[in-house]
Structures are given as C-alpha cells and as structure tokens.
UniProtKB/TrEMBL annotation:
Record field: transmembrane: 6-24
Name by which UniProt lists this protein: Secreted protein
Region called Disordered, residue ranges: 177-214
Keyword field: Membrane, Transmembrane, Transmembrane helix
Record organism: Actinoplanes auranticolor
Keyword Transmembrane helix: yes
Length: 214
C-alpha cells in the first residue's frame, strides 16, 4: 500500500471517529436539554463553559438516582389538596401568613416525596431533574417569601408568590391541588380580591420558555 493511500485511509478513519464523537456529544446534550428544560439554559448561563454546565447537570442526575423517592398515597394527596385550599382561603384575610404557610406546606410535600430539604441549593438541584419546568416558580416564590419576612412584599407580590408555589406544589402532587377546579371555568375558581390565585398556567407558567439549543 502506497504512503498516500495510507494517509487517506487514516484521514477517513479520523473523520469517522470525530463524527461519532460529535454525534454522541450531541445526543447527550439533547437528552440533558429534554430532561432539564429551562434549567439547562440557566445552568449554562451561570457556568464558566457549556462543558462545566453539562458536567454539573450529569452530577445532579447521579445524586437524584441515589434518592429513595416515594409516590404519595391517595390519602396524602387528599390531605395536601385540603391544606392547599385552606391556604388560599387564608390569603384573603392574611396574605403574608398564607404565603408563609404555603412555603411550609410545599417543603413538607418535598420531604414526603423523598427529596432533601436541608440546604436550599441542594434542594433545587435535586428537584431540577424531574421538576425543572416548575423550578423557576419555586425560586420566584422563595424570593418573594424572603422579602415578605422583611416587610418588602406588597399584596400583589404575595399573590404571585402563592401562584408560584402552587405550580411546584401541583407538579409534586401529581394533580391539581384545587379539587373544585376540574373542568371549571376561571370564573368558578377561588379568588383573592380582584385577582386569581389558581390559574398558574395562564397567569405565570405560560410565560416560562423551554430550553432551546445553543
């Protein structure tokens, strides 16, 4: 075999190997984007490089796989649905207390599902694997709740916090926590003065973009 033919064959093999590696990397990236949705873009934006971001997301998947997650019983779902409706009723007269209760109720639900609740950042990281598309709601709710503790949140802020908490709460519960909603129209839903607190799909969640390839 001549030297030039050997070189050509080597180049062809290298091109094929490179194409395979690129395809594998693209497949892994697509899987991460599908798993983490908008959280993928957030982590990439905060990381030094896309490679570091994707390494972090794979580490989250590993930690998540070590958890012993538990499904909720029908009794637990009913209990949480009743508790959430009570929070919404409480909001009318005591919005700050209602938001604080919503935070505690959501944390209890997170713990009952088997997720860690000690460190807030760890909590977000593990939740992001299966609940990435409602995680930004939880961040927003938590931020408003913290401002509320310092007296820096008005009634509209608190209403939005309850909407945000409800998004993750429903995701973890696996169903709408407001049992009376069903196929009802928005006019049938419980309200605070001049505002809805139930319809997070149209009020807030619909504004969240999914991740897109970069």
């Amino acid at each position: 075999m001549s030297a030039w033919l050997t070189i050509v064959l080597i180049v062809i093999v290298l091109v094929i190997v490179a194409a395979i590696l690129l395809a594998v990397r693209a497949g892994r990236r697509k899987k991460l984007q599908q798993t983490f949705g908008p959280e993928y873009d957030r982590v990439v934006a905060d990381a030094d490089s896309r490679t570091d971001a994707e390494r972090e997301l794979r580490e989250r998947e590993k930690r998540h796989a070590e958890l012993e997650l538990k499904p909720l019983s029908a009794e637990s779902k009913a209990k949480y649905s009743v508790a959430w409706e009570e929070v919404q009723i409480q909001f009318v007269d005591a919005p700050e207390t209602a938001v604080s209760t919503a935070d505690e109720l959501t944390t209890r639900l997170i713990a009952e599902r088997g997720y860690p609740t000690g460190d807030y950042d760890d909590q977000l990281a593990t939740l992001s694997v299966e609940h990435a598309r409602t995680l930004e709601h939880y961040r927003d709710a938590h931020a408003i709740s913290e401002r509320s503790k310092n007296g820096q949140a008005d009634t509209e802020d608190l209403r939005q916090a309850l909407v945000h908490y409800r998004a993750l709460f429903a995701d973890l519960l696996g169903e709408n926590p407001v049992r009376s909603e069903g196929a009802s129209t928005p006019a049938d839903e419980p309200k605070v003065p001049n505002q809805q607190i139930n319809n997070h799909d149209s009020d807030v969640a619909g504004s969240r973009p999914d991740a897109t390839s970069r």
